[in-house]
Design a protein that fits this description.
By secondary structure, the protein is an alpha+beta fold. The protein has 7 helices and 12 strands. The chain is 27% helix and 26% strand.
Length: 286
Amino acid sequence: MDGIKVKQDGLAKYLRGLVGNDCSIGLHEIGLNSLYEDREEAAKKIMIDGLDNKRGGTTYFTVAYFGRNGYEFDINNYSCYGSIDAKTIVVVAIPEAFEMSNGSTVYGGIFNKRKYKDDQGHAECLTDYVFQAGIPSEFILGYYTYNKRNVKPIYKQGTRTIYNPTTGESAIEITNTISGYEYGDATFYENPKYYSKLSQEEKDSFISSNYKEQNFFNINNDQSINDFYRFSYYYITMDGEESFVSKTIKQYEQSKYYKNKELDDMIKDDNYREVIPGFKVISKKD
């Protein structure tokens, strides 16, 4: 499998371009304590088998999520497990919602920006709950490698005046300050089994086999929406923390899917009656 060379400081933008904005991106570094002597072999195995999360509860125990709608995560400063120079990092990319061929849209939620292990063991959203024991290969976008030694500082030359208080004399000193960094290349290896590369039939099978019963939050079906909202009243964490159900509902109500549904309802209502004389919804935008 051939890798693609990408400048380190352009890697975040490159990854975002592969999956789009409606996707949470996270990172998992293969550390020095890997079972495999070759860390790239470990990354390749994760692309095939998925990423195990023995601690369960939330994927944040094994993945640090840094960004969703932009390039706000500092991908070059991510580091775990004590590796110093040579880096091998697995990229996790999880869609916010899943479209099925039968017209269903299963809403899974988003992963907020949190530091590695910065949690109390509670799932962040429905998808986090469903895959708390492990992230499947369908959500492994690939992995990248780079060496931190390839990052070189860029120096800017300047001058400053130095005064001798004893003699009253002054002198000009030449200074060199770091004005930025020159990044080397990272090599990215894309997973051919990633979700977006599946056929629609394979996507349908993947969704229906993982999102079942009360976890099948179909936002194109009013009954399913009502059932999921009702589920939030019964699912309470033991320590009083907000549940993944209520978190997912809040995320949904802030999403484009909810806004589009509101517009659709307005259009349907306007087809029957004009609420305000002379007012009619004629189009909508995502």
